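Tip: read the tokens left to right.
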């Protein structure tokens, strides 16, 4: 059983959003708008805020929730959606960490708290590969949400990431 969750997402309707809202990721450019995930195809529309995982309180809450979930149910793996998203957050360092460092800390803390549970991620990079047993890769030219692809772009795909990250993560 693999539970699908988001490593830095919180619904603005959740009571905890008020606590975490000051640490919502903000664009490094322009008006420094708050960053959201928005899925308008659903009714009602699904929306959640991106909370910078550099925030210790966020990591503690997230890890605690995952530990409780994995103790209550026979969970084999956690898919951590959007782990490829590591923004240049206008908020700067939080609790002494950048967003990159916060992402790595969240992975380390999950790994320590749940050593028997495999971690999976969306996308793969040098930050997350040390902690994720397997990961979903995005191929340039493939639009999975639309079910479309561009053949010439797909032909440019190269397995270099598999070669580099295979000792740590299976794609």
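Filled-in amino acids:
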């Amino acid at each position: 059983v693999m539970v699908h969750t988001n490593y830095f997402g919180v619904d603005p309707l959740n009571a905890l959003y008020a606590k975490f809202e000051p640490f919502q990721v903000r664009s490094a450019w322009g008006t420094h708008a708050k960053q959201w995930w928005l899925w308008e195809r659903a009714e009602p529309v699904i929306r959640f805020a991106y909370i910078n995982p550099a925030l210790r309180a966020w990591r503690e809450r997230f890890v605690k929730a995952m530990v409780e979930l994995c103790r209550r149910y026979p969970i084999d793996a956690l898919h951590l959606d959007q782990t490829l998203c590591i923004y240049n957050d206008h908020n700067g360092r939080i609790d002494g960490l950048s967003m990159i460092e916060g992402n790595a800390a969240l992975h380390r803390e999950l790994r320590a708290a749940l050593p028997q549970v495999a971690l999976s991620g969306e996308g793969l990079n040098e930050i997350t590969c040390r902690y994720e047993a397997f990961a979903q890769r995005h191929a340039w030219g493939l639009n999975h949400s639309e079910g479309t692809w561009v053949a010439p772009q797909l032909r440019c795909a190269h397995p270099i990431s598999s070669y580099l990250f295979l000792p740590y993560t299976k794609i």
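The CA atoms of residues 87 and 99 lie 7 Å apart. The mean pLDDT is 93.
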